[in-house]
Prior knowledge:
Elements lengths: L1 H44 L8 H19 L8 H15 L3 H23 L5 H22 L3 H13 L3 H8 L9
Helix pairs in contact: 1-6, 1-7, 2-3, 2-4, 2-5, 3-4, 4-5
Amino acid sequence: MEKKYQKQRATGAAVLAAVVVIFTFVGAKMTFNRMYRQVEDVFYNGEQGDGIGVAADLSDRADFAMQLTQVAGRYLNQTGGVTAEVAGARQSLLDAKNISDKYKADKALEDAMQRLYDELGQQALSDADARLRRTIYAGFTDRGDTSSHDGYNLAAQQYNQKLMGFPAAVLAGVTGAQRAELFR
Length: 184
């Protein structure tokens, strides 16, 4: 009779241990997912949750690019050359799905905008369009400066560092926790 109780206790202990391990991994996965969403939220909604984050800056930059191509349309061919390049880079930024793709698209847009700004500077612009050119480009570069100082990268780095610590590294490896992409 004593052997029967020992076997039942051993089975019960094994089941309890299995349940604890399973709940540990499930809880870790849920925690990692929540932490990741919080970091991603900084990108889209800003550190204060006020909507002033990198994503808003990128949206503004896309708007400035559209405005500069409209000015350029009065002086340059819109179906080819640098005007079309800006339009294509803008669309790539708008279509980008993940943070690293958004970064690459933004850099391509920045390069194209610089070329368009320079090319427009070689044209005989009206006084109003010359002012628009400068104002639009200043707004575009200002939004780039703002996003470069945003707290998203710091939040992403801190999250990634937590994933590398012990025991998080073990749990992250087993649960497939996602690392945060840096905006660079």
